[in-house]
């Protein structure tokens, strides 16, 4: 090849390679890394009192069409209901029982991940997803059937919002859960 041909190839290939490299670099960090995160939820209870509760988020491979298995465990909504308590997993098996298949739909757009609970929700036997309602004064766990968890990933840090609705397991009253989420690996 002539020197001119090499220059033409270099002028064409280098920008393409740089563009692909920049695209790949920009995508790195969009997906949560596998492992355990320390998670904190913050919000306001039904009476206007602020809450902050810590727990954990585990992320791992799913092997079933979802990009990952996502399991948030903060407090114990069904056993020790208090503001901020939430268990929300992408799979029913996140908390040691339940079905191994997804109990959410997953979407990703512009770097934002969105987990939406199935509606109608699976039975409690199949999914232990539950939350303590922040909009009403009741000490019962609600099973999510609407709303979403939205988050973004920046390295080992994950931030987002939780806005879920669902029915109380004991009295069928509707409740909501609204909080911010921050998790660090």
Please tell me about this protein's structure.
It is a single chain. The chain is mostly beta strands and 185 residues long. It is built from one helix and ten strands; from the N terminus they run H-E-E-E-E-E-E-E-E-E-E. An eight-stranded antiparallel barrel has the order 1-2-3-4-7-8-9-10. The longest helix has 25 residues, at 3-27.
Estimate the mean pLDDT confidence.
85
Share of β-strand residues: 35-45%
Contiguous helical run count: 1
Helix content: 10-25%
Order of helices and strands: HEEEEEEEEEE
Structural class: mainly beta
Shape: globular
Adjacency order of strands in the biggest sheet:
1-2-3-4-7-8-9-10
| Number of DSSP-assigned strands | 10
For the CA atoms, what is the radius of gyration? 21 Å
Low-confidence stretches: 6-29
User: How is the biggest beta sheet arranged?
Assistant: 8 strands, antiparallel, barrel
Helices and strands in order:
Elements: H1 3-27, E1 35-44, E2 50-60, E3 69-74, E4 86-89, E5 104-109, E6 112-117, E7 130-132, E8 141-154, E9 157-168, E10 174-184
Quick overview:
This protein is mainly beta and about 180 residues long. The chain has one helix spanning about 5-25; strands spanning about 35-45, 50-60, 70-75, 85-90, 105-110, 110-115, 130, 140-155, 155-170, 175-185.
């Amino acid at each position: 090849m002539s020197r001119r041909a090499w220059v033409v190839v270099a002028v064409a290939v280098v920008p393409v390679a740089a563009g692909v490299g920049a695209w790949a670099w920009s995508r790195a960090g969009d997906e949560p890394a596998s492992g355990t995160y320390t998670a904190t939820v913050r919000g306001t209870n039904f009476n206007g009192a602020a809450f902050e509760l810590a727990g954990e988020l585990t992320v791992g491979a799913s092997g079933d069409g979802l990009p990952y298995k996502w399991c948030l465990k903060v407090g114990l909504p069904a056993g020790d209901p208090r503001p901020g308590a939430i268990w929300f997993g992408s799979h029913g098996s996140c908390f040691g029982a339940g079905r191994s298949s997804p109990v959410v739909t997953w979407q990703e757009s512009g770097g934002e991940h969105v987990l939406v609970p199935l509606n109608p929700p699976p039975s409690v036997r199949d999914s232990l997803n539950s939350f303590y309602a922040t909009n009403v004064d009741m000490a019962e766990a609600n099973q999510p059937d609407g709303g979403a968890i939205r988050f973004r990933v920046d390295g080992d840090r994950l931030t987002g919002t939780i806005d879920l609705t669902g029915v109380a397991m004991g009295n069928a009253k509707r409740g909501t859960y609204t909080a911010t989420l921050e998790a660090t690996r």
